[in-house]
């Protein structure tokens, strides 16, 4: 059997008008305008869960919410986060604050900073270790002690990478592969090592090699591999046409997708020669081993799709909003309220590509000898 394995780092941007978050287009110049109920029950709810879990510090976003930059937004930062949720930790500001408020707001955030570190993180304890690294100066010998804390964590990373992979298509049981497979060809961004090394891009903001984490200030350094976010619903590096070109030449094409969210798959998902679609997400630096474990059935597929995938860009409730002059603030109206994701699709009766939590597995099962028993009435 000859098999062609198309490995693509296919990725997507987060929804571009996320409350208390950021976006790629005018990320500091868009105001997310949300009604009170939707704010509380959808967009602020994860922050409540974070407070309940004992989070020590929060950072407000770059963009305004309801026409006021989040760092100076009394409703978001004081009414909701502090008074309603009882958050007693510290706040980290973004770079966007009205000049007249800078001193007062900085003092307001500094006051609880030290108590929160002691109360939540116990940094006043004699046993709390001293700082031993500077993430911005990794080569500095003055601070960095280069303490190796990795142990055998790579095993867990590999296991999680395999366990989170989702099987979306498996025509004629093309997977798992037999160990006696004679020919295997890899094509695409994942097909070889990145040309720039594991940590060549600031905040992992590159687009070569395998995609293993989103980019930005929340990233970490790798020891062996290196990649970023998306700002659309199509594949990087002309990926859709690559899949079509490969499938035109091979009748057993496996597509492996590394992505931060859904993609439009309509151009090739129903191609008869695309026999397998593996949704690998962001697997970290053990991505290669994790995929191999899945392909050869060393790990049964258990992952479920964490989002809904649609057939057309217009099917999604939120669309990208662009335009405006350089100094304009773009208003993003959350008029859809609660009708997001499956509620939007159900309301509009839109046919899905893959629903939330969809998955296939290598395991087979069937129902037999079914019996229906009528229960007595409890009236």
TrEMBL record:
This is Uncharacterized protein. It comes from Pluteus cervinus.
């Amino acid at each position: 059997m000859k098999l062609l394995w198309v490995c693509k780092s296919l990725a997507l941007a987060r929804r571009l008008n996320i409350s208390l978050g950021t976006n790629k287009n005018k990320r500091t110049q868009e105001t997310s305008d949300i009604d009170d109920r939707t704010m509380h029950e959808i967009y602020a709810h994860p922050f409540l869960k974070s407070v309940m879990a004992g989070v020590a510090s929060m950072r407000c976003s770059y963009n305004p919410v309801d026409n006021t930059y989040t760092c100076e937004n009394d409703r978001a930062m004081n009414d909701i986060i502090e008074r309603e949720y009882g958050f007693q930790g510290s706040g980290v500001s973004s770079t966007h604050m009205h000049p007249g408020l800078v001193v007062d707001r900085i003092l307001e955030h500094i006051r609880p900073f030290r108590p929160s570190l002691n109360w939540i993180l116990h940094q006043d304890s004699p046993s709390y270790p001293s700082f031993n690294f500077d993430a911005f100066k990794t080569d500095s010998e003055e601070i960095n002690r280069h303490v190796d804390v990795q142990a055998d964590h790579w095993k867990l990373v590999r296991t999680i990478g395999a366990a989170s992979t989702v099987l979306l298509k498996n025509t004629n049981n093309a997977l798992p592969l037999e160990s006696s497979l004679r020919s295997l060809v890899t094509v695409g961004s994942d097909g070889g090592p990145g040309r720039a090394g594991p940590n060549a891009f600031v905040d992992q903001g590159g687009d070569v090699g395998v995609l293993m984490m989103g980019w930005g200030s929340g990233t970490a350094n790798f020891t062996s591999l290196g990649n970023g976010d998306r700002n659309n619903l199509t594949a990087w590096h002309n990926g859709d046409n690559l899949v079509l070109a490969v499938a035109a030449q091979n009748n057993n094409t496996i597509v492996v997708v590394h992505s931060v969210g859904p993609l439009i798959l309509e151009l090739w998902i129903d191609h008869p020669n695309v026999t397998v679609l593996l949704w690998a997400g962001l697997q970290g630096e053990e991505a290669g081993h994790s995929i191999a474990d899945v392909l050869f059935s060393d790990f049964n597929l258990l992952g479920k799709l964490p989002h809904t995938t649609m057939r057309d860009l217009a099917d999604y409730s939120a669309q990208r909003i662009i335009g405006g002059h350089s100094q304009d603030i773009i208003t993003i109206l959350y008029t859809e309220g609660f009708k997001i994701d499956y509620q939007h699709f159900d309301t509009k009766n839109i046919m899905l590509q893959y629903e939330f939590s969809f998955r296939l597995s290598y395991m087979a099962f069937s129902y037999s000898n079914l019996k229906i028993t009528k229960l007595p009435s409890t009236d």
